[in-house]
Structure formats: structure tokens, C-alpha cells
């Protein structure tokens, strides 16, 4: 199957092939006014999690919990990841997608569990309608798998992943405390030290008919927390209060969102939120996500302290992370269908 990048660069492309025509559900067509101050994603000042002032620290943990409960998405500022590191990973991904088709196909995986996998759409062999997106997925933890093209790309990936690892760990501690659990609960219960982390680089080229194409369909994310940065081209929309909200991030901030397994662990208190990627006819969008999950052998179920058989009965059946990962990656993306199958 031809990459979307190659298709978009075809001479005189004015219409997209019918296989890329995405039919929206009518309820997916309404978006929120971008200037509505009540529809802005929460901002978390990461530096306050280290504050020696107990009031400041308590407030940021409360704000973090409220963001997880009300939005499922939040922007992190003062996070300590240097701008040049963030710029380097974006440019490294651009360099990878600019490789020749032959070179990129060297990384075409055969199985969803392959440590390095280049492809287009989401799961092209299972889809009837394709998405306007090329991707590179790399497992970066517990073992880092280097991508040896273009030169220097592997080193840039490793640096960015290490710089965001501590940030994610500290946020999980704050989220754990916001749930009334010990700071280390999520880390220990989910065996995050051996957790599966994979980097997903996404390329959304300009599309001549963006109104009938889709970069990524409405879906929720696997894992505990997803880390996301992009090249300054908007395209992410999240569902909030029944409407679609355009995500406008602060420059140099890092976006985080709740994954399905944090919803399971919190017994439904914190929700993984349905989101999508839309495309445009002007500029290429590049995003870099890191899905931070439990270890593959961890059985994820609601935290016992958050379960009360009368007031708060268990909302989900437990499932091994490896099994959930295989199911989600091998099937069509459709809202929260994978998570919904575990609801009690």
C-alpha cells in the first residue's frame, strides 16, 4: 500500500481516492468555539509538584486530579524537558519520513508486537477506509530499540524518551495521590519500572479534500498516560461535554492524556477521553506520542481502595496488559470499544 506522503506528493492530486473518504457520524460534526474560555484544556505547572510549600503542592495535586476527572487531558508547563530536545525529536521524525519508500519499508513490521513498525493508516489490512496518516512505532522500554535511519535519529529518540520518563513518573505519583492512594501505588501496582512504553511518530501530509478525510478516527488511548508534542500545526480535537474541542497547546508545553488503563485502575473516576486527528490542505503536521503503560504481564483491575461493593462496585473486569495491547492494536479503532468490552 502506498504511503500517504507519496500519495499527497503525487502530481496534480486534487481529489483523494475513495478508499480515504471518511464518513463522519453526524454528532461528530459540531465543534466548540475556539475562543470560549470555558473550553480550554487545564494547565499544570509541573514545577509545583516539587514545591516545598505544602499548600502549593496540595493545590497542584488537586488541580491534576480535577483535570483527570473533568477533561482527561492537560498541558504541562515548566516540565524541564529542553526545547532543543523537543525540536530535535520532531526534526528526527521528519527526517525519517523523508527517507525513500524503499528505506522506510525496511522497518515494515509483520506483527503488531514487533518492536519497530512503519506503516500507514492504523491497521490497513483490517480497514476498509484508510486514514490520512503515516506512522512509525518503536518500543522504547523496557528495552530501547534503535531505528538506524536517518543517521543520528536513534540517539535523538533515546534522549527524548529518557528526558520524558522522569516527568511521566512524577505525574503518575501526583495522580496516585490525587486518587487518595500512596504516591508510589500506580508505579508499584502497574510495575511501571518494567512497563511497556512505545513511541509513535505520526505524519499527516496536506490533503486536497480535508473535509472528507480523517487523520485518526475517534478513539481513546491504551495504557496509563500518553505524552504528546507536535510541530506547531493544529489538528488534535478531543470530545468534551458531547462536543469536539480544538486543542491549542501553549508553545513548548507537553500534552498528557489519560489512557484506558488509568480509567480501569481508578475504577472509572478518571476517564480516558475520545479524541481524533483532523487534517488540512496547507501544511504537514507531525506529532510524537509516547504511550506509557504497565508491564505486559500486569493484570490491570480497579485499585482495591477505590472499590466499595455498595457505593463504588468494581466497574471493570481485570485484564492482562499484553492481551489488551494485542486486541487494540490488531483491530479497527472505534471510540472506546476495547475498554467498553471490559465494563461490568
TrEMBL record:
<dbReference type="GO" id="GO:0051213">
    <property type="term" value="F:dioxygenase activity"/>
</dbReference>
<dbReference type="InterPro" id="IPR044861">
    <property type="entry name" value="IPNS-like_FE2OG_OXY"/>
</dbReference>
<comment type="similarity">
    <text>Belongs to the iron/ascorbate-dependent oxidoreductase family.</text>
</comment>
<dbReference type="GO" id="GO:0031418">
    <property type="term" value="F:L-ascorbic acid binding"/>
</dbReference>
<keyword id="KW-0408">Iron</keyword>
<feature type="domain" description="Fe2OG dioxygenase">
    <location>
        <begin position="194"/>
        <end position="294"/>
    </location>
</feature>
<keyword id="KW-0847">Vitamin C</keyword>
<dbReference type="InterPro" id="IPR026992">
    <property type="entry name" value="DIOX_N"/>
</dbReference>
<dbReference type="InterPro" id="IPR027443">
    <property type="entry name" value="IPNS-like_sf"/>
</dbReference>
<keyword id="KW-0560">Oxidoreductase</keyword>
<dbReference type="InterPro" id="IPR050295">
    <property type="entry name" value="Plant_2OG-oxidoreductases"/>
</dbReference>
<dbReference type="GO" id="GO:0046872">
    <property type="term" value="F:metal ion binding"/>
</dbReference>
<keyword id="KW-0223">Dioxygenase</keyword>
<keyword id="KW-0479">Metal-binding</keyword>
<dbReference type="Pfam" id="PF14226">
    <property type="entry name" value="DIOX_N"/>
</dbReference>
<protein>
    <submittedName>
        <fullName>2-oxoglutarate-dependent dioxygenase 19</fullName>
    </submittedName>
</protein>
<dbReference type="InterPro" id="IPR005123">
    <property type="entry name" value="Oxoglu/Fe-dep_dioxygenase_dom"/>
</dbReference>
<dbReference type="Pfam" id="PF03171">
    <property type="entry name" value="2OG-FeII_Oxy"/>
</dbReference>
Amino acid at each position: 500500500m502506498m504511503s500517504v506522503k507519496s500519495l499527497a506528493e503525487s502530481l496534480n492530486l486534487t481529489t483523494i481516492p475513495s478508499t480515504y473518504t471518511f464518513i463522519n457520524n453526524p454528532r461528530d460534526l459540531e465543534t466548540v468555539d475556539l475562543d470560549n474560555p470555558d473550553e480550554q484544556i487545564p494547565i499544570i505547572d509541573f514545577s509545583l509538584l516539587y514545591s516545598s510549600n505544602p499548600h502549593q503542592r496540595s493545590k497542584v495535586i488537586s488541580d491534576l486530579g480535577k483535570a483527570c476527572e473533568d477533561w482527561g487531558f492537560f498541558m504541562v508547563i515548566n516540565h524541564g524537558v529542553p526545547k532543543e530536545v523537543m525540536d530535535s525529536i520532531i526534526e528526527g521524525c521528519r527526517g525519517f519520513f523523508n527517507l525513500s519508500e524503499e528505506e522506510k519499508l525496511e522497518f515494515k513490521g509483520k506483527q503488531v508486537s514487533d518492536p519497530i513498525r512503519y506503516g500507514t493508516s492504523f491497521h490497513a489490512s483490517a480497514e476498509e477506509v484508510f486514514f490520512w496518516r503515516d506512522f512509525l512505532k518503536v518500543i522504547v522500554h523496557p528495552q530501547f530499540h534503535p531505528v538506524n535511519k536517518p543517521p543520528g535519529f536513534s540517539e535523538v529518540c533515546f534522549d527524548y524518551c529518557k528526558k520524558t520518563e522522569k516527568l511521566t513518573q512524577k505525574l503518575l505519583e501526583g495522580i496516585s495521590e490525587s486518587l487518595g492512594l500512596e504516591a508510589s501505588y500506580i508505579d508499584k501496582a502497574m510495575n511501571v519500572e518494567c512497563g511497556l512504553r512505545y513511541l509513535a511518530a505520526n505524519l499527516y501530509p496536506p490533503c486536497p479534500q480535508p473535509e472528507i478525510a480523517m487523520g485518526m478516527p475517534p478513539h481513546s488511548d491504551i495504557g496509563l498516560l500518553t505524552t504528546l508534542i507536535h510541530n506547531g500545526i493544529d489538528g488534535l480535537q478531543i470530545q468534551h461535554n458531547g462536543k469536539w474541542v480544538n486543542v491549542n497547546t501553549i508553545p513548548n508545553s507537553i500534552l498528557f492524556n489519560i489512557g484506558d488503563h488509568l480509567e480501569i485502575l481508578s475504577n472509572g473516576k478518571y476517564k480516558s477521553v475520545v479524541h481524533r486527528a483532523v487534517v488540512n490542505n496547507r501544511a504537514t503536521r507531525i506529532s510524537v506520542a509516547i504511550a506509557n503503560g504497565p508491564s505486559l504481564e500486569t493484570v490491570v483491575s480497579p485499585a482495591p481502595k477505590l472499590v466499595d461493593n455498595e457505593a463504588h462496585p468494581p466497574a471493570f473486569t481485570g485484564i492482562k496488559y499484553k492481551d489488551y495491547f494485542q486486541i487494540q492494536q490488531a483491530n479497527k479503532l472505534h471510540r472506546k470499544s476495547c475498554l467498553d468490552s471490559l465494563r461490568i
